[in-house]
Design goal:
By secondary structure, the protein is of the alpha/beta class. Helices cover 27% and strands 19% of the residues. It folds into three domains: 361 residues, TIM Barrel (Alpha-Beta Barrel), CATH 3.20.20.300; 233 residues, Rossmann fold (3-Layer(aba) Sandwich), CATH 3.40.50.1700; 136 residues, Immunoglobulin-like (Sandwich), CATH 2.60.40.10. The relative contact order is 0.10.
Length: 796
């Protein structure tokens, strides 16, 4: 190993490096030995970019930051390295060497030899050049498959660890409240149970690979007014407690997440970064969370610049530290000199610094960063000639065949067939018209936190680093005997209609027309979906609806395909399109998945994690509304979706029969057990997604008409049947009562086994008996679904 990545392990072992001692004793010894400036240095990071030549990382400048002088900073230490791979395009092996050399310098420069904790984004895969671009989280929700999402997260985590990263900023556990919000693509859906179970599986997978999972954004970001990014939140305490908080609670209790990131928004005038009741009272004192709270980028500075609750940087630092924010990200703005000066002159107690420091050092100790034999060089580079960058290039593969196979599995499970008049699957068409702005666009499958769309757009001419076949290419491979004619028609959002006549002509001459519409992911208005790309209505961007309507006027059967980051109103297409296929930014293997659904090679099994609106202006609306939030005679606005939450079609048919309930009454601390049979009555294998909804007809506070409390994917061959047994704890009927405490009330309930939120198949009418019961954070959080082995149905 070269000297520039070598850490001296010959010195006498200090108490904080003694692995025979408890973590707490090691951390206490280290804190006792540190000066104030050494303490605060562990509470901030530096935004850097790795070197594509294998040299040390270089500080990344942002308009919120002043220039960073590493020579001045490093002698006191450094808490975090921000996005070494997610800032500039860099070969993974050379980026790993660059990070290792920087870590060696950091440990050699500070007197305790403490390395930095390196974090990066992993919202839809490791956001590094050349890393697999998996489907976005909204597609994870569409799979209704926690196990596969967990396997994907494990793969992402292994790739991150392979290059020296310790922490991933994912998953997003915000529950969609308004689909106009630009970050809908980053969410898992509009139901807290779905978000919680899928998100928890992702956390488990990431943590199993040794990566610290960071839950975001805590809490209320998705409830901002009018769907505007960073806008104040209008949520009340029950919406917060019953819809927005449960996914975070599940991911902490069941997933073991070791980090939480605060939300940018304020709730009733209190910014999350300064909310002590939230970040300390609830998160730590009630839920028992013992990890680190990290600031969303610049969130502490925003207390001064955007929220106006702090006059100076030191005031902002004091508010955040007191609330419970342990680490300032992405750089050093308030927790550096301003915080140290505020502690020195008595404005901020040093005990608050020590509290945050203890949490950050505990995390580093548990990651092995304080161990005497810690090595900055990742295993993938051991034995390599580190002085020959050209030989290292390509040594680490972050887009392996196994990764791509997993990405395709997730993409295939996430494709949702919204409607079909029998046109799909396509039966060897001779002439296919392929139309629309996303039909021949490589990056149409990527969300805004993919590397090509997040970083690569700033480096024009740089290759994507991964293969991104367009749908045009995938269809040519899927239908090799067909003549495919392409016409763009219009752009995603340019409003240009000059290509419309050509698109109409091409469609008129074809046997089948496919129009591929949707979004272009970007940041802060540079796209139609993504962070800061909020919209006023859910009409298709640009002139896409004009193109769609013109094609519907023809006699050629039209299949509408969506590559999008949010659901859109589709106008006439809901009734007039021969079929509609919805995909939410399905990643690098997404076009193969869509082509497979169109040909029938893949039997679609995706289900909507968000409803598709009938009209463009009925937001905000989700299926989780109370009775007055649904259609009725008291309003001329009908928010009923064109396609509801949980909806999705298959190329086979399923029957649900033989429901039995063990006991129709249970005490308020008991449970119900339901058994029923699902049978594949069609001619091909397929997957049914069984969903369980709870309806509480009478409660002491207004409740949603129904809410998801369980689900399962059921794989069946033609003619096969499977008996399912579902155990539903009474705890899942709980809600926040009038006194602010969670309660289970006695009374009648309906448990609806359904194919979607609008398609109940079997209903169990049950009742809770006994006394009203109050619950705490130890309550049961999920149903249990057990599947008996499939049995061949008897011939009729």
């Amino acid at each position: 190993m070269n000297a520039d990545v070598t850490v001296d392990h010959t010195a006498e072992v200090s108490p904080w490096n003694d692995t025979t001692a408890s973590v707490a004793a090691r951390v206490d010894a280290l804190i006792d030995a540190m000066t104030l400036r050494e303490k605060t240095a562990q509470l901030y990071g530096v935004w850097v970019g790795a070197s594509d030549e294998g040299g040390e990382v270089a500080p990344h400048q942002h308009d919120m930051e002043e220039a960073v002088d590493l020579d001045a900073l490093l002698p006191t230490g450094l808490g975090q390295l921000t996005r070494p791979f997610g800032t500039v395009p860099v070969d993974p092996a050379l980026g790993a060497l660059s990070l290792a050399r920087t870590q060696a310098r950091i440990t050699a420069t500070n007197r305790f030899g403490i390395p930095a904790l390196a974090h990066d984004e992993c919202l839809a895969g490791f956001a590094a050049w050349g890393a697999t671009a998996y489907p976005v989280p909204l597609s994870w929700g569409a799979t209704f498959d926690p196990d596969t999402v967990g396997r994907m997260a494990s793969a992402i985590g292994r790739d991150m660890r392979a290059v020296g990263v310790h922490q991933g900023l994912a998953p997003v556990l915000d529950v969609v409240r308004d689909a106009r919000w630009g970050r809908v693509e980053e969410t898992i859906g509009e139901d807290p149970y779905l978000v919680g179970t899928i998100g928890t599986a992702y956390v488990r997978g990431l943590e199993s690979a040794g990566i610290v999972a960071t839950l975001k954004h805590f809490v209320g970001y998705s409830a901002s007014r009018a769907g505007r990014n960073l806008a104040p939140s209008s949520m009340g305490p029950r919406e917060r407690a019953d819809i927005l908080l449960p996914p975070f609670e599940m991911a902490i209790r069941e997933g073991g997440a070791r980090s939480v990131m605060n939300a940018y928004t304020d709730t009733d005038g209190v910014p999350s970064a300064a909310d002590e009741e939230l970040l300390t009272g609830l998160l730590r004192d009630t839920w028992g969370f013992d990890g680190t709270v990290v600031a969303d980028y610049f969130a502490i500075a925003f207390l001064k610049t955007l929220h106006g609750v702090a006059a100076e940087w030191a005031d902002a630092a004091g508010l955040a530290l007191r609330a419970g924010v342990d680490v300032e990200l992405p750089g050093v703005k308030t927790y550096g000199a301003p915080l140290a000066e505020a502690v020195a002159d008595g404005r901020v107690p040093e005990t608050l610094v020590d509290r945050a420091l203890r949490r950050t050092l505990t995390q580093k100790a548990r990651l092995g960063l304080l161990d005497p034999d810690w090595n900055p060089l990742p295993a993938a580079l051991e034995g390599a000639d580190l002085d020959d960058p050209a030989a290292l290039r390509g040594r680490i593969d972050l887009d392996s065949p196994a990764n791509r196979a997993l990405a395709r599995t997730v993409a295939e499970e996430a494709v949702v067939l919204l409607s079909n008049d029998g046109t799909l699957p396509l039966a060897r068409p001779r002439r296919i018209a392929l139309l629309g702005p996303n039909a021949d666009e490589a990056v149409a499958v990527l969300g805004c936190y993919s590397f090509p769309q997040h970083i690569g757009v700033r480096y024009p001419g740089t290759p994507h680093g991964i293969e991104l076949p367009t749908l045009r290419v995938a269809l040519a491979a899927e239908f090799p005997d067909a003549r495919i004619t392409f016409a763009r028609g219009t752009g995603v959002d340019d409003g240009d209609l000059t290509g419309l006549p050509e698109a109409v002509r091409v469609a008129r001459e074809a046997d089948i027309a496919l129009v591929v519409l949707g979004d272009r992911a970007g940041l802060f208005g540079r796209g139609t979906s993504g962070e800061g790309c909020d919209v006023e209505t859910l009409a298709l961007p640009g002139a896409q609806q004009r193109l769609l309507d013109a094609l519907l006027d023809l006699g050629t059967p039209l299949v509408t395909v969506l590559l999008a980051g949010r659901p859109y109103s589709l106008g006439r297409a809901v009734e007039e399109s021969a079929a509609i296929v919805q995909s939410f930014f399905p990643g690098e293997e997404g076009t193969h998945a869509i082509a497979g659904v169109l040909s029938g090679r893949v039997n679609p099994s995706g289900r909507l994690p968000v409803g598709v609106p009938r009209g463009p202006g009925s937001q905000p609306a989700t299926y989780l509304g109370a009775k007055l939030a649904h259609a009725g005679e008291v309003s001329s606005i009908d928010p009923t979706p064109a396609f509801p939450f949980g909806h999705g079609l298959s190329y086979t048919r399923f029957d649900w029969t033989d429901l039995s309930v063990d006991d129709q009454e249970a005490p308020t601390d008991g449970e119900f057990t339901l058994t029923f049979t699902v049978r594949n009555t069609g001619g091909r294998s397929g997957t049914e997604v069984v969903q369980l909804y709870l309806h509480d007809p009478v409660a002491s506070v207004v409740q949603p008409v129904q809410r998801l409390v369980g689900y399962a994917r059921v794989d069946l061959e033609p003619g096969e049947a499977r008996r399912l047994r579902v155990t539903v704890p009474a705890d899942l009927a709980s809600f926040t009562g009038r006194d602010g405490r969670r309660v289970v009330e006695p009374g009648a309930l309906e448990l609806r086994l359904a194919a979607s939120s609008a398609d109940p198949r079997l209903t169990a009418r049950v009742a809770l008996t006994g006394v009203e019961r109050h619950l705490d954070h130890t309550r049961r959080l999920r149903s249990v679904v057990e599947q008996e082995p499939a049995a061949r149905a008897r011939a009729e």
